[in-house]
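Database export, one record per block. Field names are fixed; values are copied verbatim from the stored entry.
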Amino acid sequence: MDSQATLTIPLPRPFSLEYSLESGQAFRWHRRGDWRYGVVSGRLVALRQDGDELHVRAASEPEAVAADVRDYLRIDDDMEAVYARIAADDDRMAQSIAAYPGMRILRQDPWECLIAFICSANSNIPRISANMNDIAASMGEPLTLDDHVGYAFPPPQRLAAAGEQALRDLRLGFRAKYVAGAAELAASGELDVASLRRASYDEAREALIALPGVGDKVADCVLLMSLDKPQAFPVDRWIRRAVEEWYLDGAKRNYNGIREWSWERWGDMAGYANQYLFQLRRLMASGPLGA
């Protein structure tokens, strides 16, 4: 299809493009009017939800684009089954689902997701977004759709060739050495992030933890949001507060203790529970829902 053509994908209920793309998972979507522009599987696409339909614009290969968008947004996830699993006898989870119905865990490109969450160390969503957009604009291939210009995320070889100083020049700070280190490992073939989708949770987590700048939380974010490990339960300050205040009566637990608690409560859907708790606790703190 040409850049003015629109493909329509029917959506199951519940589904929310807004909540899925604006929930701290992905950092390079740009909203222009009713459309959101971003890169999926190396193609610049524009997405707009209209009720039970998702409108997709792209420059070429409509069938491939549709398949990639469905995969990225996890449109085939059975959200009613997810909700039944995580919200049974759980008023706080039910509150979050009611506030953000249809929010999905994204299935992102593993390489870009890894770099994004390495950049997340001691940072915040606006800064992570700025870092990722700066890397892409500086080192990625330009992509055009309509009058919008986006950028493919640069492969490991390009980041490795650019080196740490170039990343520091993009204001990554101390994170630059970790991004450069991961790029060198991936460029050399020692690391194939995408292959970890086929590994077990424990095997994939061990491989990620071995990387420079990757700790428990970064590893679990990558496992959950790009590597098909729905039991992954990233613990940041928002999740720690939610779990300890809402479920543990203020009792303190370390990272592993909270993760194991989440598995006992939500099993292999702990990752979905995590995303809903993260969204509710984070945005309650900013005021729109009230405390």
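Remark 1: The two ends are 48 Å apart (CA to CA).
Remark 2: The CA atoms of residues 245 and 251 lie 8 Å apart.
End of record.
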